[in-house]
Amino acid sequence: MEMELWFTEKQTPALGLSLKVKETLLRRRTEFQEIAVLDTVQCGRMLVLDGMVQTTIADEYIYHEMIAHVPLRTHPDPRSVLVIGGGDGGVVREICRYPQVEKIKLVEIDAGVVEASRQFLPEISSALEDPRLEIIYQDGREYVSSRNNEFDVIIVDSTEPVAIAEGLFGTPFYQGVFKALREGGILVAQTESPFYNGTLLQTTFRRIHSIFPQAFLYLASVPTYPSGLWSFTLGTKIVSPMEPAGDYLPTGLRYYSPEIHRSSFILPPFVQELLRCEEAPEPPAF
To answer: Which of 25, 97, 143, 193 could bond 227 through an S-S bridge, CB–CB 3.0 to 4.6 Å?
Structure first.
């Protein structure tokens, strides 16, 4: 009888996502976290950090397109872009589709993530050699605290707010981001599942909204992320993201479109309620 190997991510204390594994391609511990790359039957190669699924070949394009193209199509002329986290290279790949972008900086605390992605996830990390890109191995909080009026768009592609990523959800960090953005600048941060991380989403949205003149929440469906429904919070100094700006639209996109851009800001009533409530409700039981 053939033995089956399964990986399970405990997405909540009472719910897990299990994927059948063909092969473990990498498992190592760095100074910061445990990195694993698994080849799964359903989703292909998958990057796992400290037991949490970060990205898979099957559905990575949804997350990476939505966290990148919404701000880049909102800003009328993005020239300088900073990515915090995102060592797998997926966000950088999407930014590199824009010829008008002149400078990209990727600030990743763990070089091991970049190395693993270059070796095992070439479809995602393919743009890490782009000449416009500079990779800086540093804590994102420290980096933004020393920048001023430098970037048009800042994208925070962080892991869940535990351990090394916890500080990327705090008010001092967002204050540093605001200072590092130019006039008209835009921040986008991933803000977890409205189903299972309501309190975090609520708190993070309010922190960003307290610093930026305007804040907006938008959604995308990412099958391997907890609940399959994922949120992003966009803070802007001037422009509204409701309508895409400019005529340029990269070709070959698989999820993002101008229609998806507009519709992603239309929030279900339960998410609207979450943003209005003083305290987030308990995660729903299905």
So the answer is: 193
